[in-house]
């Protein structure tokens, strides 16, 4: 969704290497992965604001700036917009400049009461140039600046925020307060970056990662005023507030493609490290599993009688995988609920319910709302999240961070594997705490998990076979995916990857469901992936899935079978066998998912699509 960058530098610095515009454009490019349809910048230019904005990509903005440059200013803000109110046009793009060209505002989120506010402002003689809620917020801010806030931009922001409903991040610069940016956040991301004689703001740290790794997380309903040398946080009532400083542990290179054709390709290859890093540092000296971040009283966790996993899309499929493990290890009933369905269902949730919110970005608004709802009902919430300083961990009682590094491609890959890994750690921790498993059993499972990165690497090392299949099937109009037990959510994830980046019909089914309907879809030449459970697991499942392969092959399907090494029972029924290393049943999703990601990436690439930025999708879905 929208990306935001702000920069304030100190004047008269010798050997200056950059001005506001350089930092902002660089930051906006790094934030492109969030998805957007227009871009704009504004800088303080003497006693007014200079700004440029365009529908389209940052490259279109660059073209405008080449023809109509902006001055070397030291204070500025920038924005990439994902249209909500008002289409993606130049006029609706941010910044919105009001107050006779002196005040510029960029905004992420939705001001829900904007139409009432607009009516009130129109009645008082204000005119509007766009259809956006942002211009309403900007006009309100200007109004306060010039009346009751008496030229104090921070005070004006405070008064404005008290009137706004909805979710928003706002950044404002004013030519009459030329040394600062004032920013506010409510249920929408904003992080402060601290440099030497310069400070930054970003929707996430990628917005300023080229300049500093020192960052400060802000709480909800807070306002920050940054100058080149200082920052000050207050809440919406004007009381002083504290941010939480943290150091970013990855560098700009981690957000680059590192020689891969696409971020998606790179991120598929990052997966052994993502799983390994997520497992790091989880054992104490006695070999017990420790989750330092799980700051929930042990007595509360012992009393949990139900677990509800809330998430969307790929993260929800990771939750489905985790459910099998958590129920098996902890013997606690575990449900998985799409976050956007959760609170509207009036779910039965109370103090004995543990809600687990899975999210790569930590900003998915549906999941944020589910977390808030769960906590209102008295449930404890543990987030499993990949993004430090994001909203979901902040809104939760505790967070287990996945250490997958930045995921730039819109289609989630490494976050999925890291989410499963972290959710498994949580399941094992609960099993340990509640005495469902002995220490040696836990250790054995942890060893199995620790062996997975190497096995994932083996799957990746075999990618050429799968890539060739993806390329060969570029003209397929539909691909089906079948799985059972933990292979079922893997099938769903394989189908989702193909839909979102290759734009072809793809569906995942529980293999047992085949005879209840989906088999009617199978005709001559229909490609069907089948994820075969290990013959060493619950054996009847293996033989049932092998029978499914026979059934669909007999009806003309092209069967693409993912089976473990040595499982020769599948050979005679498969058109193609994709081998994955042997692994315990619950670990298989960490392997079987990888060929499906590689297949989708290769097929979409063969069709000539940009796999990193699929149409109509945004990386971070910050509206409900
Ligand atoms: C699919 C995909 C989405 C996300 C979903 C949740 O490849 O990326 O389905 O998984 O939007 O996003 P997060 O994990 O950021 O909450």
UniProtKB/TrEMBL annotation:
Its EC number is 2.6.1.16. GO terms for cellular component: cytosol. The active site is at residues 2, 619. Keywords: Aminotransferase, Cytoplasm, Glutamine amidotransferase, Repeat, Transferase. GO terms for biological process: carbohydrate metabolic process; fructose 6-phosphate metabolic process; protein N-linked glycosylation; UDP-N-acetylglucosamine metabolic process. It catalyses: D-fructose 6-phosphate + L-glutamine = D-glucosamine 6-phosphate + L-glutamate. Residues 2-229 form the Glutamine amidotransferase type-2 domain. GO terms for molecular function: carbohydrate derivative binding; glutamine-fructose-6-phosphate transaminase (isomerizing) activity. Residues 296-436, 469-614 form the SIS domain. The keyword Repeat applies. It comes from the Bacteria. Catalyzes the first step in hexosamine metabolism, converting fructose-6P into glucosamine-6P using glutamine as a nitrogen source. Homodimer. This is Glutamine--fructose-6-phosphate aminotransferase [isomerizing].
């Amino acid at each position: 969704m929208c990306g935001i960058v702000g920069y304030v530098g100190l004047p008269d610095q010798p050997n200056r290497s950059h001005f506001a515009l350089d930092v902002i454009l660089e930051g906006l490019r790094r934030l492109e992965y969030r998805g957007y349809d227009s871009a704009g910048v504004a800088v303080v230019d003497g006693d007014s604001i200079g700004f440029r904005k365009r529908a389209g990509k940052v490259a279109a903005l660059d073209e405008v700036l080449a023809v109509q440059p902006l001055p070397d200013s030291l204070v500025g803000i920038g924005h990439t917009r994902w249209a909500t109110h008002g289409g993606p046009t130049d006029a609706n793009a941010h910044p919105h400049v009001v107050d006779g060209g002196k005040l510029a505002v960029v905004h992420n989120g939705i001001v829900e009461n904007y139409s009432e506010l607009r009516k009130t402002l129109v009645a008082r003689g204000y005119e509007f140039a766009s259809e956006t809620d942002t211009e309403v917020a900007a006009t309100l801010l200007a109004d306060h600046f010039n009346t009751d806030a008496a030229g104090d931009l921070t005070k004006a922001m405070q008064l404005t925020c008290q009137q706004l409903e909805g979710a928003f991040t706002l950044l404002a610069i004013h030519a009459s307060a030329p040394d600062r940016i004032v920013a506010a956040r409510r249920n929408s991301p904003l992080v402060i970056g601290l440099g030497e004689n310069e400070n930054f703001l970003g929707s996430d740290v990628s917005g300023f990662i080229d300049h500093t790794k020192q960052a400060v997380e802000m709480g909800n309903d807070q306002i920050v005023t940054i100058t080149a040398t200082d920052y000050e946080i207050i809440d919406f009532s004007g009381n002083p507030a504290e941010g939480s400083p943290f150091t970013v542990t990855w560098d700009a290179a981690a957000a680059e493609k590192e020689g891969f054709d696409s971020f998606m390709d790179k991120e598929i290859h990052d997966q052994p490290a993502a799983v390994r890093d997520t497992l790091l540092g989880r054992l104490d000296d006695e070999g017990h599993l420790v989750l330092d971040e799980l700051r929930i009283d042990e007595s509360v966790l012992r009393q949990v009688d139900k677990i509800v996993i809330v998430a969307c899309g790929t993260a929800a499929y990771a939750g489905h995988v985790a459910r099998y493990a958590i129920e098996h290890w902890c013997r606690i009933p575990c449900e998985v609920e799409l976050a956007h369905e959760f609170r509207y269902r009036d779910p039965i949730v109370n103090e004995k319910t543990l809600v687990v919110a899975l999210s790569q970005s930590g900003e998915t608004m549906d999941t944020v709302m589910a977390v808030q709802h769960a906590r209102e009902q008295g449930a404890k919430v543990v987030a499993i999240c990949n993004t430090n300083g994001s909203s979901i961990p902040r809104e939760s009682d505790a967070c287990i961070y996945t250490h997958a590094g930045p995921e730039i491609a819109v289609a989630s890959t490494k976050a999925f594997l890291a989410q499963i890994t972290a959710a498994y750690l949580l399941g094992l921790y609960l099993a340990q705490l509640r005495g469902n498993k002995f220490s040696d059993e836990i250790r054995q499972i942890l060893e199995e998990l620790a062996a997975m990165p190497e096995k994932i690497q083996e799957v990746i090392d075999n990618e050429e076979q799968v890539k060739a299949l993806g390329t060969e099937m570029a003209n397929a109009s539909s691909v089906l995916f079948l799985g059972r037990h933990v292979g079922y959510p893997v099938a769903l994830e394989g189908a989702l990857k193909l839909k979102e980046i290759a734009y072809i019909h793809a569906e995942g089914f529980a293999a047992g469901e085949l005879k209840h309907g989906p088999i009617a879809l199978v005709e001559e030449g229909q490609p069907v992936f089948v994820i075969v459970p290990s013959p060493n697991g619950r054996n009847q499942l293996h033989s049932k899935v092998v029978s499914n392969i026979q059934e669909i092959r007999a009806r003309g399907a092209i069967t693409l079978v993912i089976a473990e090494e040595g499982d020769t029972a599948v050979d005679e029924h498969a058109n193609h066998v994709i081998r994955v290393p042997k692994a315990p049943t619950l670990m298989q999703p960490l392997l079987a998912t990888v060929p499906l990601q590689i297949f989708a990436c290769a097929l979409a690439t063969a069709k000539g699509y940009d796999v990193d930025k699929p149409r109509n999708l945004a990386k971070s879905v910050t509206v409900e």
